[in-house]
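hi! just following up on the protien thing from before. the input was this:
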Amino acid sequence: MSIVGTGDTMAINAVLAVIPVAEIEDACAWYTSFFGRPPDQRPMDSLAEWHLADGGVVQIFQDPAKSGRTTVNFSINDLDDRVTALTAHGITTTDPVIVSSGRQRLITCPDPDGNQLGLLEPAT
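and the predicted 3d structure came back as:
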């Protein structure tokens, strides 16, 4: 992947979404339910990360002063199934809405700190 700048091209090897949380252990339990699996790595006590796809990583990092101000959207193929699984784990979601001029369905859910996570699915 590369990004075209002003005359230079920068090669991007990965995208890393960092989500600040107030308390890492509580957040780690919630994100384990959200992703349906435990973190792939715990490189330090205040950090957990999930490797989601080639070059796509989500980190939660304990930083109470910054928690609750992040929005991250994930593109998936099975929105209804995921909502069912999230609900079964006690995670509240919005009802699906049509966005992107009718091209996608979106639900959102806040983590315990108020960070907003969105799930997008191509509309059929």
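The first helix runs from residue 24 to 35.
The mean pLDDT is 92.
cheers
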